[in-house]
Specification:
single chain; 550 residues; alpha+beta; 5-stranded antiparallel sheet; 23 helices; 11 strands; disordered N terminus
């Protein structure tokens, strides 16, 4: 305290202009990146390059002013695209409105959880949370935050001054700690919402049914079998050699637009589509989408989805212009705008063609059922989801999808489809469709893949009016064509045992390796290891920004 008093007297009485400029520099730097600023100035304080008073005053004023500006952005300038289109805001607005008793705690907690500050503070302004209480909580939380860094600045400095061999361990500890804070913070925020809290209670049930298992849990044995096949066939990359007309055989990172480009625009069942590059500006992307809709005479709804995507990630049914602008403003990846199919039935056809014999077959048929809830005129949408025995197991997926409608009461008898994307990971129910298998369905499948150059193995996702029409080759639309990375999705039928599912998946990959090796022996190329690894990393980075699917 004596040091601080001396510094304060020195600045006020001696009029040290240089220190005053330092404070101003810290304030403006915190507007750019408060985390980087407070860490950097803490190190400067520990090395005595700046005084403790400059550190405390500069960071305190800069962070408080920055937080108040975020609150003001939500209160008065919500039309700004960068603020109003943040997907994180949608649920927080409603949460703060409905749970003011938690708002003070939430605002305080956000100061200590990276990634939550902007959405929480802007949401506070959007819902016109008390300016007085927001200011009080902000001042207290920032004071605590700045004092923590001041208290431990010497420890942080000493850590970074370690010898070179120790630096990787320190960096690893920082990364793990940061990841832990984000996970804990996300759990706390989720626990505050009463619907999410009840969803967490039911989520343990997913481990009783393998169809709901997380990917790492279900596919562990499949990954080991894949490695065994790689040893057996003496290459892990043979599956990338199937489907010579598709990049990497469709194993990973294939472009949906490029696959559609292989087909004729007037081919049977083709939906109209347009590729939108990620190199365009937001306004250019919006223009491209609008021009496509006008040229093809399409209206709402329509589909926007990532050009490279898996398991229905990022697929969005667009009902209004605002939905379109929200999607585009958050899309930092190439995407496709696609005509919407009004047909309500969907089927997945896993097709295999042996290039040596020319014989083809339907390895798997998946009948897809889109779950619905029915309104009773009393219960909210959130209550209806949590009351459904199956829906509540995947409740968090549905709650995220309908987070702005949780308190909506559906009229008596009104039906609401919980998912539009025909993907099991998004909540669609899969059943074994072997009952539909016959020569007519195979003939229609052959007529479709005949238009896809080099297509040998993969799954066609098709929407159709009636099964009779589909087998007759009419009234159906091709939603997607998936290559070597697709799977026989009928295994998610609740009546199929885990052993049967693994037998199917093992057999599927055995076929992939055999076909890939045959193609390589005939001179077809396969993807290199580093290219495959790069595609996996690129997809993981891009998918992190995918919006919740419809």
């Amino acid at each position: 305290m004596n040091i601080l008093s001396k510094d304060l007297h020195h600045l006020l009485m001696d009029g040290d202009l240089f220190e005053g400029l330092q404070v101003l520099l810290i304030i403006f730097s915190s507007f750019v990146s408060e985390d980087l600023t407070i860490v950097t100035t803490a190190l400067l304080t520990a090395s005595e390059a700046i005084t403790p008073y400059v550190f405390l005053l500069g960071n305190f004023l800069g962070i408080v002013l920055g937080d108040m500006l975020l609150y003001g952005a939500g209160r008065g300038v919500v039309h700004l695209t960068s603020v109003s289109n943040s997907r994180k805001l949608q649920g927080l607005n409603r949460f703060i409105q409905q749970n003011p008793q938690y708002a003070v705690f939430l605002i305080f907690l956000a100061r200590f959880i990276p990634g939550t500050r902007i959405p929480v503070y802007v949401s506070s302004g959007l819902v016109r949370f008390s300016l007085f209480w927001f200011t009080v909580v902000t001042v207290v939380s920032v004071a605590v935050w700045v004092w923590i860094f001041y208290t431990f600045n010497e420890s942080l400095f000493n850590l970074l001054m370690l010898d070179a061999p120790s630096i990787p361990l320190v960096m690893l500890a920082i990364v793990i700690g940061y990841y832990f804070i984000i996970k804990v913070g996300g759990f706390v925020l989720q626990f505050l919402n009463p619907y999410s809290r009840r969803a967490l209670y039911h989520s343990w049930k997913k481990y009783l049914y393998y169809e709901f298992w997380p990917g790492w849990m279900l596919y562990g044995p499949v990954a080991l079998y894949y490695i065994w096949l790689g040893i057996k066939y003496r290459s892990l990359l043979y599956p990338s050699a199937v489907n010579p007309g598709i990049e990497s055989g469709g194993l990973i990172g294939e472009s949906k637009a490029q696959i559609f480009d292989l087909m004729k625009a007037d081919a049977l069942g083709m939906l109209k589509y347009r590729y939108v590059a990620d190199t365009l500006t937001q306004s250019q992307k919006i223009t491209v989408v609008k021009e496509f809709l006008n040229q093809e005479k399409l209206g709402y709804p329509f589909i926007l989805k990532p050009d490279c995507g898996q398991r229905g990630s990022g697929v969005k049914l667009i009902h209004h212009e605002k939905d379109m602008i929200d999607y585009i403003c958050n899309a930092e990846y190439p995407f496709i705008v696609q005509e919407y199919s009004s047909y309500k039935n969907e089927i997945g056809l896993f097709y295999i063609k042996d290039p040596d014999t020319g014989k083809s077959s339907l390895f798997s048929i998946t009948h897809k059922i889109f779950p619905e809830i029915v309104g009773d005129g009393v219960s909210t949408l959130g209550e209806l989801i949590l009351a459904d025995p199956r829906a509540r197991i995947m409740a968090q997926t549905y709650l995220t999808r309908f987070e702005t409608r949780m308190e909506e009461v559906l009229p008596q008898g009104e039906r609401l489809r919980l998912v539009e994307s025909g993907n099991h990971a998004q909540g669609t129910i899969f059943e074994d469709g072997q009952k539909f298998k016959d020569k007519d369905l195979l003939a229609v499948t052959r007529s479709i893949v005949r238009n896809i150059k080099g297509f040998q193995v993969g799954r066609l996702d098709i929407r159709y009016k009636t099964m009779k029409d589909l087998k007759a080759g009419k009234n159906f639309h091709i939603i997607e064509v998936n290559g070597a990375g697709s799977e026989a999705t009928h295994i998610y039928d609740k009546d199929i045992t885990l052993i049967q599912a693994y037998k199917t998946l093992f057999r599927q990959w055995e076929i992939m390796f055999a076909l890939g090796k045959s193609n390589v022996e005939k001179g077809k190329g396969m993807c290199g290891f580093f290219k495959i690894a790069a595609k996996i990393i690129q997809y993981q980075i891009a998918s992190a920004s995918h919006p919740s699917a419809s």
